[in-house]
Amino acid sequence: MLEIVDLEVTFGRGLTRVKALSGVSLSVAEGESYGIVGESGSGKSTILRAICGLAPMGGGAIRLAGADVRTPRDPAFYRTVQMVFQDPYASLHPRHTVDRVLSEPLAIHGFDRREARIEQALSDVGLGAGFRFRYPHQLSGGQRQRVAIARALIVEPKVLLLDEPTSALDASIQAEVLNLLDRLRGERGLTYVLVSHDLAVVAHMCERLSVMQHGREVEELTRARLQARDASQTYTRNLMTASDGFTRAAAPS
Amino acid sequence: MTPLLAVDNLRIAFPSRTGPVEVVRGVSFTLGRERLGIVGESGSGKSQTGRALLGLTPVSGKATADRLEFDGIDLRRADAKLWRSLRGARLSMVMQDPKFSLNPVMTIGRQIEEAVRLHGGASEARDRSLAMLEAVQIRDPKRVMAAYPHELSGGMGQRAMIAMMLVTEPDLLIADEPTSALDVTVQVEVLRILDRLVSERGMGLIFISHDLRLVSTFCDRVLVMYAGQVVEEIAAADLGSATHPYTRGLLHCLPRIEGGVRPLPTLTRDAAWLVEKR
To answer: What is the rounded distance in angstroms from the CA atom of residue B92 to the CA atom of residue B176?
Structure first.
């Protein structure tokens, strides 16, 4: 469904040149959920942004359903691929109601039956019709993230790019949003690419994952290998140990 | 032995259009020279509790308590002068985000030295600052001393802030989400530094966090807060046998690397948890 070959992304020029991604390749099958894990600055979000055309591609290729994507991306691309951003406090326009947030993509892509679609989208993400004319400041973090998911799904995409969709949320709300994403994928056969710093979230959501460091892929694992803690690279093993919390025994003293 | 800190019936209220809203409702605990975790979700009052211990409740808020004693000193009646002699010197606080808590226009060195000078010890300020930076595992302390906050990574900035708070060798450190802004591998290093300081210097530590699993691996005892109240106090080792449904819910709603139930159990909030216990 989605294939990335030797993707390179460079920001700035001259002395301030930063190579954010140096030759990353991955391939995601239709209906699969693929995870990208890494620490800050590893380039994991840059991959998603490059897929959407939000980061400049310096080299390599991105293929969607076998065809190279065009730069700038055409409307058909965004009908197929949608993104949910990390911070629901920043990704919704503060002066647009939920109704307006959801109407805009429908208008852009020329959908019919807009009323019905908006109501359906809200109920799909577990928000009632009563939320339709609220502003973002009248919603909690979890409700905002649901609106962001509804906004992405309203154009009936096939691929959803999820950039740390729950890292700004409390643990109990995170569980609700992860369950929602899981259910929607089952119902609609969506393909997910999920970026997270949390190995446990990726283990729960994704069948395969890639571990990133300094703009390169460290290794690719399946869920089964992650759960069995069967990693071949030291960095991945360190990441697994650190995710378990603090261990006094390991302290060098 | 008298405890280092004793808090009884702490209440913090903020005015609102519909009358005062209590965000902390009758929190009581004592602390010795140990690691105490305060865990709760956003809005549970955990940070306000920590701030009140340092007299840092925002001016619009009102903090009251039946007892608020630090090492025998009644903090409720502390005036500005007493607070100045306590804060930094005997009680200090590490905030969540080094980006917002360090002075952006002062070098790290000057900020740490300032802390030493203000609390006596002007002559050896530089040496003590360097030694402290080394103690928090900064490899090149001379370079970091000369650096401005924006020149450091998040983990380095957080370590510099911990160094600044610890250079005066306080008796009690309040750490409000000190590692939430950091990557997991850096987080473990920072915790290791705090852990060593507690065991070597006999410091008391209050560790405020939203991450129940992390706190349970690090602290000796945990207070779980919900809607301004402590719903459960439990030894970290016994967390698996927690009785309050909120504590259990918080533990179980986290996904695990090993995999588990699908869908994840969610937390059903019971209105009875909001009722104030007396």
So the answer is: 11
In whole angstroms, give the CA distance from residue A69 to residue A74: 9
Contact A9, A57 (CB under 8 A): yes
Residue carrying structure tokens 């620490």: A39
Is residue B262 within 8 angstroms of chain A, CB to CB? yes
Max Cα–Cα distance, chain B, nearest Å = 61
**Cis ω on the peptide bond leading into residue A252 (within 30° of 0)?**
no
Q: Which amino acid is at A228?
A: A
Distance separating alpha carbons of residues B225 and B221, to the nearest angstrom: 13
List chain A residues with CB under 8 Å of B181: none
Cα A157 off chain centre by: 14
In this predicted model, what pLDDT tens digit does every residue of A181-210 receive, in sequence order? 999 999 999 999 999 999 999 999 999 999
Q: DSSP string of A85-109?
A: -S-TTTSS-TTS-HHHHHHHHHHHT
Cα dihedral across residues A247, A251, B3, B6: positive or negative: negative
pLDDT in tens, A42-76: 889 999 999 999 999 988 999 999 899 988 899 99
| Residue labelled with tokens 């990704």 | A91
- Of the candidates B20, B13, B93, which has an alpha carbon nearest to the alpha carbon of residue B45? B13
| DSSP H or E segment with residue A6 | strand A2-11
- Any A CB within 8 A of B258 CB: yes
* ipTM of the shown complex: 0.80
Identify the CA nearest to A212 among candidates A38, A49, A40.
Answer: A38
Task: Check if A234 contacts B (Cβ < 8 Å).
Answer: no
Compute the distance between CA of residue B47 and CA of residue A163 in angstroms, rounded to an integer. 28
Residue ranges of alpha helices (H) inside B172-241 are 184-201, 212-218
**Amino acid symbol at B8:** D
Which among A170, A205, A229 has CB closest to B210?
Answer: A170
Q: Return d(Cα B13, Cα A60) in angstroms, integer.
A: 58
Of A13-22, B41-50, B104-113, the poorest mean pLDDT is in A13-22
- Interface size A-B, in CB pairs within 8 Å, comes to 99
Take residue B110 and report the two structure tokens written for it.
């000057």
